[in-house]
Amino acid sequence: MKVLLVGVGGVGEAIAVTAKRRPWLEKMVLADYSLARALEVAQKLGEANRFPVEQVDAGDKQRVIEIARKHNVDLLMNAVNVDFTDSLFDAAFEYGCDYMDMAMTGLGAEMGSRQLASNAAWEKKGLLAILGMGVDPGVSDIFAKYAEQHLFDEVEEIGVRDGAALEIAGYDFAPAFSIADTLEECTSPPVIWEKDKGWFTTELFSEPEIFEFPEGIGPLECVNVEHEEVVLIPRWVKTKRVTFKYALGDKFIHAIKILHMLGLTSKVPVNVKGVKVAPSEVVAACLPNPAHLGDKMTGKTCVGTWVKGMKDGRKRQVYLYQSTDNAESMGKYGCQAVSWQTGVCPAIAMELLAEGIWKEKGVLGPEAFDPVPFLEKMPEFDFPYGIREM
Amino acid sequence: MKVLLVGVGGVGEAIAQIARPHAWVEQIVLADYNLDRAKEVQAKLRDGKRFPVEFVDANKQEMIEDLAKKYTVDLIMNACDPSFNVPMFDAAYQVGINYMDMAMTLSEPHPQEPFKKAHIKLGDYQFERARKWEEKGLLALVGIGVEPGMADVFARYAQDHLFDEIDEIGIRDGANIEVKGYEFAPNFSIWTTIEECLNPPVVWEKDKGWFTTEPFSEPEVFEFPGGIGKVEVVNVEHEEVLLIPRWVKTRRVTFKYGLGDQFIGVLKTLHMIGLDNKEPINVKGVMVAPRDVVAACLPDPAHLGDRMFGKTCAGTWVKGKKDGKERQVYLYQVADNEECMQTWGCQAVVAQTAFNAVIAWDLVEHGLWKGVGVLGPEAFDPVPFMEKMAEYGFPYGIKEM
Asked: Is residue B395 part of a domain?
């Protein structure tokens, strides 16, 4: 398989590091806006022929197509922030290769609607686009499908719960994930799906609840955040309610609320003494780059799916999860926990495509596929999952 | 009396408006870096001869000296931000005339222990030159706004007339001003507020002298009069702490500002993320100072006067003994924004700062305040000053606590 990886940040690097060990990977083109960053990762990977670098502006569709054609790729892997999803999705379709991303565009219930609406055209062309194929969305959706098929007779509610006990030495405040994406998802109204009401939105940081995370992470306060699973899961899994809650922590929520109130989360450029600049970009530039925080970070992160329903006439509650320890992901792969946990997932999906196990065509979410082969591969990738009865 | 007023911003305009009805004010030269702004104020004053305008760069000492000589003024009134104090202070000395300001030369934090030890303090540059001013028979009256200024006069009054012995003097500033139509809109420059509030606050104690603390230290809830009510106040670096111990006998001096929870939360968050940084950083190829971006995202306070409602209170809380009994008193002045807008066409915060300078001119002009050297407001007899306050439309109050 030949892959064009657009975006070689923290997650992009983790995808490449993971895929490098798999025999099906013929070539992975490392394309980034910052050629220096692409070269840095290429050097770490150490196989210049298998991992060539390219400079690219992900918003420049024609240039993306040229690179795809030059390297004759089979798959375009989008690992940049959601601002570039439309141009990359269209580039893959026009060039004629499969496509995968890890986040979706659009507000609330509209998330991904532009992509999903083109399902028939992709099917007709014999191409596949998997939307939201990271850890959450991604593995969290696969867990939901697995629960429906194998653990429950009837599913009442599916709640994705994401929490971490990570500390970053030397920083008072340092998000472990893309700051632009974090600001975006935390300042958009959270979306909830219910069978009778369909999709609807709530106030920011609504319905706080304490969720007890496994693997020693412990109880954390989680709040509603806008996230892809809420839009994806109801399309392929039968249930009555879907939510996504994130354990952001008081300090983080407080900071986001203040930045939002001051207008500093805005992506719309403002005039600053004659220079145009987007406030959210300035916030990101003030904070440390999450791609370079790995060795200052300690602790674990956990992503999982809490499913409530009936099995054999009795109530059942299960939390299916994946937990990554930063010391392990850094030690084995040189990637910080949050990036690695996200980046492994598309690599597993690529393997399932390369081996012909996932065969569907069209524009699909991860829960549209058979979850069992994916879950079976997870331990093999040093990426074990757990199931906890609750 | 002829005055060279350098800086015709909000406070400068209010000084001219408040001085205008007094016949003993012969002439005020309105000098500003922005000549259009000076002309705008001149037009409101409607007397071009008594209020001539001049362009000035307050960083250029010679230019200030030339203007002082051209108009043969008796006083340089500094109404710029304190980063321009040095050239103006030195210009007055060179020309041989009196000088007044409303904020003192800037501090520099201690290089190793910024939140414990004081280093270069507010006004150090000015007080180091006190002997020279004395020898030349000139007066530099520093910090003669509301705070510092009126608050220092109150401290001296408490010592002279209300107490036998003073334990502690705490300046307390709080407001309930709201800006309609905005969830968050500071009524003064956010840029300056960040500077002032994130500098290490200074405290004075009899045994320790001057020392500094972490920003926003020692929060306390203070009940302000005039209907403002309870406001949380925290330590902020301010001139009174440097001035009062030089002339008033006490054991401790603090300055606490009612920034409010919301504002403190904002400042802490900006600082935590690094958005208070005034040095340009690279944002996707563009160089820009994060602090300027914050200012650009907020409404310009210069245009908010008629959307502001509420009152602002400045005052001095004194604790000590009188006739063998414990006593606590708060001496204060409350200004209402709507009233100030109607009477002076200026918002409360600037009007409340400006009137004190004009009273000081009055007292010096009429021989009620006499002194040479570099002096704070508390070096003078407080009674004539306080008697003038009601006359100028800014009455004081005294509350037993």
From this structure: no
**B269:A258 CB<8 A:** yes
Can you tell me the distance from the alpha carbon of B316 to that of B193, in angstroms, rounded to the nearest whole number? 21
B269 with A275: Cβ contact below 8 A? no
Q: Do B297 and A275 touch (CB under 8 A)?
A: no
Q: How many CB atoms lie within 10 A of CB A313?
A: 7
Q: Which domain holds residue B329?
A: 150-347
With CB atoms and an 8 Å threshold, state whether B288 touches A264. Answer: no
Contacts of A263 in chain B (CB under 8 A): 297-298
Q: What is the per-residue pLDDT for B302?
A: 62
In chain A, positions 131-160, which contact chain B (CB-CB < 8 Å)?
none
Q: Mutate which of B179, B184, B261, B269 to disrupt the A interface (most A C-beta within 10 Å)?
A: B269
Cα angle, residue A47 at apex, residues A46 and A50 outer, rounded to 5° = 150
Asked if residue B306 and residue B227 are part of one domain, the reply reads yes
Residues B312 and B185 in one domain: yes
DSSP class of residue A288 equals P
Burial group, residue A44, by CB count within 10 angstroms (0-12, 13-18, 19+) = middle
ipTM reported for the complex, 2 dp: 0.72
pLDDT tens, position by position, A180-221: 778 888 888 999 999 999 999 999 999 999 999 999 999 999
Q: Of the candidates B347, B367, B393, which is a domain's last residue? A: B347
Exposure of A308 in the CB half-sphere (CA atoms within 13 A) = 8
Contact list, A279 vs chain B (CB under 8 Å): 293, 297
Ranking A82-96, B46-60, B178-192 by mean pLDDT, the lowest is B178-192
- Same domain, yes or no: B92 and B228: no
Helices (H), A46-135: 61-71, 85-95, 113-116, 119-124
Spatial distance between the Cα atoms of B63 and B103, rounded to a whole number of angstroms: 21
- How many domains does one find in chain B? 2
- What architecture is the A2-134+342-380 domain classified under in CATH? 3-Layer(aba) Sandwich (3.40)
Residue at B130 is within a domain: no
Give contacts of A287 with chain B, Cβ < 8 Å.
273-274
> Are B293 and A272 a contacting pair at CB < 8 A?
yes
**Looking at the structure, do residues B89 and B234 belong to the same domain, yes or no?**
no
Q: Do A286 and B281 touch (CB under 8 A)?
A: yes
- Cα A42 to Cα A47, A53, A77, B285: the distances in Å are 7, 7, 17, 24
> What pTM did the predictor assign?
0.72
Same domain, B217 and B156: yes
CATH 3.30.360.10 for the A139-337+383-389 domain, yes or no: yes
- A178 or B216, which is more confident? B216
- Chain B nearest C-alpha distance from A85 (Å): 20
HSE at residue B104, side-chain half, CA atoms within 13 A, is 30
Residues 257-316 of A with CB under 8 A from B: 258-259, 261-264, 266, 270-273, 275-277, 279, 281-283, 285-287
B140 in any annotated domain: no
User: Quick one: B84 and B193 in the same domain?
Assistant: no
Non-local CB neighbours of A329 within 8 Å, separated by 6+ positions = A294, A335, A336, A337, A340, A341
- Test the B interface: residue of A262, A281, A283 with most B CBs within 10 Å: A262
Helix residue ranges per DSSP H, B161-300: 190-198, 240-247, 260-273, 290-297
